[in-house]
Amino acid sequence: MDKKVIAVVGCGRIAKNAHFPAFSQMDNVRIKYACDLIIEKAEYFKETYPDIVENVITDYKVALADSEVEAVFVLTPNYAHYTVTMDALKAGKHVFCEKPITVNYALSKEMADEANKQGRMLNIGVCNRYHKSVEKLAELNREGKFGNLYHVYCSFRSFRSIPGLGGAFTTKEQSGGGVLIDWGIHFLDLILFILGGAKLTNVTCDAYNEMAKDMKAYKYESMWAEDTADVENGTNDVDDFVSGYVRTDKASISFNGAWAQNIDKNEMFIDFMGDKCGARLAYCGLFDLTDGSTLETTKEEYDIPDMYLAEDRDFLDSIDSNEKKRNHIDYILESAKLLDTLYASAEVKKEIEL
Ligand SMILES: NC(=O)c1ccc[n+]([C@@H]2O[C@H](COP(=O)([O-])OP(=O)(O)OC[C@H]3O[C@@H](n4cnc5c(N)ncnc54)[C@H](O)[C@@H]3O)[C@@H](O)[C@H]2O)c1
User: Fold this and answer.
1) Cα 14 to ligand 1 centre (Å)
2) Class of domain 4-128+308-327 (CATH, top level)
3) Pocket lining for ligand 1, CB < 6 angstroms
4) pLDDT tens digit string along 85-113?
5) CB of 281 within 8 A of CB of 270?
6) Residue 153 C-alpha to ligand 1 middle, in angstroms?
7) Residues of the chain with CATH 3.40.50.720
8) What's the CATH architecture for 129-305+336-353?
9) How many CA atoms lie within 13 A of 347 on its CB side?
């Protein structure tokens, strides 16, 4: 079997926790280059996965100049998604880029246009579209199980989870925003996916930066991405709490999201409200289905396959089949537009019509 020759740009947390473990389970992939600005981070993967990682580099353009490299995985912080992806597409490579597409809708659209112009695949890491619970809910909705699915509510709230305070995650210019773009993208995107797409009609949103206005006074027990934090000289100008309402031609959607709050609860779920049935999906978990006619609540038991493995496989398969799969950028742009419009509404403190 011909192996896919790929380069990985960005060897941080998502590379370590998701994509390299996935690559190591695939028998059709050769990682010709692991690239990171910090060479030690790339070297870690060559040492950990010597059978699949061949070279380490700090300049991704070396990989782009190599005609053997067919596809590039862009696993950098949000601010680098656009540049690395555009360069890779222009060099004729197929690209898998982590979520969010990039820091705003206009640049996201340019990325989609470039991929289509070059005739190259560009998939986005909205991995939850490959979660088995999400697939099942989408199927139940298609079958009409919910009856009239009139509203979806989601909560992506955590007690203390501001990442890398002061660094790229909390600097709007580099991240595009805070909890809404970082976590909200997963929730809102998979709601649109389960609805089978929806035409957005109007949205309203409030966004707050409250919990670490004084970065030195922010209290926490642990901080993810702490290696990127810069409390002394950094910036925190992004949302740590958001609340919004979205009207569509299908169900309406409401949400609350918190990277941090003075409520000692982590509540990560999505409620699908139908007149026949309702479902509560535990984020990244199973769902309860409540039937309004019997008042019974059931939970199916099933294995949840690795969604990162599934999304990576589907991306590599799509190169040969030339078929746009569910994570293709064309199908994610609507979520990027929704995020942009929600932020715009929060900025002007008014409802916006699309
Ligand atoms: N799908 C998911 O569930 C999920 C989960 C976590 C993170 N992410 C996304 O993955 C991306 C990376 O997040 P992370 O937590 O792994 O960040 P990270 O900071 O741990 O890793 C990013 C790495 O990219 C490197 N880098 C930056 N610019 C580069 C360049 N030009 N060339 C080469 N290397 C470069 C950095 O040195 C760093 O090692 C983000 O966009 C984030 O939103 C997705």
Assistant:
1) 6
2) alpha beta
3) 9-14, 35-38, 41, 60, 75-78, 80, 84, 98-99, 125, 127, 225, 228
4) 999 999 999 999 999 999 999 999 999 99
5) yes
6) 29
7) 4-128+308-327
8) 2-Layer Sandwich (3.30)
9) 10
